[in-house]
Amino acid sequence: MAQPTSIYEQEHEDFRAMARTFMEKEVAPHMEQWEKDGQVSRELWLKAGEQGLLCFDVPEEFGGMGVDDFRYNAIVSEELSRVGASGPGFPVHTDIIVPYITSLGTEEQKQRWLPGLVSGELISAIAMTEPGAGSDLQGVKTSAVDKGDHYVLNGSKTFISNGIMSDVVIVVCRTDPDAGHMGISLLVVERGMAGFERGRNLDKMGLKAQDTAELSFDNVEVPKANLLGKEGEGFIYLMQNLPQERISIGVQAVAAIEHVLDLCLGYAKEREAFGKPIGKFQHNRFVLAEMATEAYVARTFINDCVLKLNAGQADPSLASMAKWWTTELQAKVVDAGVQLHGGYGYMTEYPISRAYTDSRISRIYGGTTEIQKEIIGRSLGF
Which of 53, 238, 274, 297 is most buried when burial is the number of CB atoms within 10 A of its CB? Predict the structure, then answer.
């Protein structure tokens, strides 16, 4: 089968071989237990850190590889998808959260947090969504009142990935109630701070092994030393970092599409009906032909996005295109995959079933499809 032109060099493929071995040995055998537990083990995070699978762009002085090349991030997402693992929150940690600290943190903050984030001793989360504010970040109600040498933080967040296990949480909050989007700041809340509580580990349709929590802040005293960047510029920082987050989600979606295609090809060759493999029937061949074509186009597109991200050329519009189109395609492909599997596709012990329930959230988190289209539409002059 034809393959898109690779964007990876030999050092990337060497890294992939190591990552693949790790996923097959340390992740795949434990997925069923983690789904029952509602989270992965902390030991997995430590092993991932030890293998150099976290936070590649963190400078060497803070324990990282100091390699600012998103292709490494993409490989981790691809190899997680290859074994059908949605539990380990490595991409959220590496692609989305830690870059805020790397780019905005003071020298003291970097020394305090980055080594542990690289090693897996510290797990990160970012708390944006609230019960009453999802895609509309300007609707954030969580407040932080300046008390001189500290802020007093009050509010609640929901749907927070890595929320149960997190040790370091970047909280999007309002430091000035009258300043609109210029009143939003980023505060780092640490495990053990008085008044910082975790609610239940949310019972989701899919991503069963990915801990997703409600967080509450009741008069939490956050030192001024935990303000990330400048007060009142949090919204700007969020907008600057969202393109990488959305391309990261696109990378995961394309990897999931390829995983589903592999599952379907294997099943179509093994499963027989009316005395022959179901892949021999014209309709099924056509379905698989469509999947293969869509996977090829999606891979070519997301590879271009990754290269543009590396070159600093991925603007918000491109990132939104990547996010909505790949995740909508993921939903289409996985739905066709379930149909191809027939009744077995509805059984939770079949990987295609997990791929189906895991995929649904991808059109919602990181900004819904509708939000992405709005961003693109505005860029067109409307």
Answer: 53
Confidence check: pLDDT of 364 > 80? yes
| pTM of the predicted protein model | 0.94
Question: Is-contact 251 309, C-beta < 8 A?
Answer: no
Please say whether the beta carbons of 129 and 172 come within 8 A.
no
CB-facing half-sphere around the CA of 115: CA atoms within 13 A: 7
Crossing angle (nearest 10°) for helices 107-119 and 42-50: 100
With pLDDT > 90 as the criterion, what percentage of the chain qualifies? 94
What are the distances in angstroms from CA 168 to CA 52, 156, 319, 353? Answer: 20, 16, 26, 33
Q: Are 241 and 309 in contact (CB under 8 A)?
A: no
Residues with active-site annotation:
245
CA angle 133, 139, 149 (to 5 degrees): 110
Report the phi/psi class of residue 336: left, alpha or beta, with left for phi > 0 and alpha for psi in -120 to 50: alpha
- Contact by Cβ (8 Å): 185, 233: yes
Beta strands in the chain (DSSP E): 124-127, 143-146, 150-161, 168-174, 184-190, 196-201, 212-223, 227-228, 272-273, 276-277
- What six digits make up the tokens of 60? 């060497």
Within 8 A by CB and 6+ apart from 146, the residues are 175
106 φ, ψ (degrees, to nearest 5): -75, 170
pLDDT tens column, 42-66: 999 999 999 999 999 999 999 999 9
